[in-house]
């Protein structure tokens, strides 16, 4: 891995002045200077567009099982517990491998090669998943989801590291929100078109698990699209590194395994929050189709529509939430608010017959706020040369929770029903609130690094810059 890949891509204004002459020489012959210059916002936002599509395919295909739950269970003649294995086999490898994926990005592959490798895993995994469905083989489908999971979560680590590399100190919360938005667009499109694609494939003469397999092969096209985006990101990042000569500004420090034990304790609280919150969202959506059919008597099409609302709303609201958080700061406050509102939404779904569209819309807004404020906090407590490892660790812990809770959720539905499942999710959200309160207290004792206002962060950045000049 080159040193430049571990550095912030963009420097401060003094560095920009120093580099401007060299950059103009490098860009000579490029007609659209603003679009070609990595120091210009226009170029960064063009690259951001490609960056956001990096994990689009993996998010689209991640919830293929949820969108086709009835079809999978009927065509393969499996129960809900067996169906949920398709999610747990996605998550289990990432309990360990996602962390190592982040470490490999930091220490061995670099962001560019790592993103390409893990995008390839996503493509291969989805193809095996589709082949298993076509042949009616549940074990092959699970193997495909296993490989898909290795690539999907580690690819997200690479995407997060790219985001910090290009936008740290600028619009980071907004960028994370926008990445989330594009990812949720992938999930939303999946929820709303996969049933229609299945019905369309049926008109070709395919039936049963063969129809299911062909449908999933078609979905694999989105994974190929994300692989193309990984190749484009490698080109843009390598080019920017060559133009800005970021290698020259680096100290040569790299992460070692021994550094992990010294990670800021705030990161561990962030990991707990991530697990406790996300297990009340993703497994719920994975099982939500039948829940809305049974409790409200919805048709599969209408149940899919309400089940995808969290993704639809977050796709629109996430960049707006991130922009607001960039302007206000107070990340921990927003995280607590998002969790508390989500808890209220689950209570409405569990104990009332109020139109579920209301609760799911509000949950989508709360999810947007939490995700846009939670993930950027890692970059505030962890040195940049360790960022991919830290994000990998966070997603490893998240996947440990998702793997175990997905299995438990399927068992709870089979044995106790959906009411007990909702109580189960409410308990996890209470755990998240306790962890958030603990993080707030810890952060207050350390100078409110995570909960500073935007103005306080700006003043601190200026003070750090002056300190560097003095040295």
TrEMBL record:
It is found in: Lysosome membrane. The chain crosses the membrane at residues 42-62, 83-105, 111-134, 214-236, 266-292, 304-325, 332-351, 357-378, 390-413, 419-442. One of its GO terms (cellular component) is lysosomal membrane. It catalyses: L-lysyl-glycine(out) = L-lysyl-glycine(in); L-aspartyl-L-lysine(out) = L-aspartyl-L-lysine(in); L-arginyl-L-alpha-amino acid(out) = L-arginyl-L-alpha-amino acid(in); L-lysyl-L-lysine(out) = L-lysyl-L-lysine(in). SUPFAM superfamilies: MFS general substrate transporter. InterPro entries: MFS, MFS_dom, MFS_trans_sf, MFSD1. It is a multi-pass membrane protein. Its main location: membrane. Keywords: Lysosome, Membrane, Transmembrane, Transmembrane helix, Transport. GO terms for molecular function: transmembrane transporter activity. Residues 47-446 form the Major facilitator superfamily (MFS) profile domain. Pfam families: MFS_1. PROSITE patterns: MFS. Lysosomal dipeptide uniporter that selectively exports lysine, arginine or histidine-containing dipeptides with a net positive charge from the lysosome lumen into the cytosol. Could play a role in a specific type of protein O-glycosylation indirectly regulating macrophages migration and tissue invasion. Also essential for liver homeostasis. Homodimer. Interacts with lysosomal protein GLMP (via lumenal domain); the interaction starts while both proteins are still in the endoplasmic reticulum and is required for stabilization of MFSD1 in lysosomes but has no direct effect on its targeting to lysosomes or transporter activity. Belongs to the major facilitator superfamily. This is Lysosomal dipeptide transporter MFSD1. It comes from Capitella teleta (Polychaete worm).
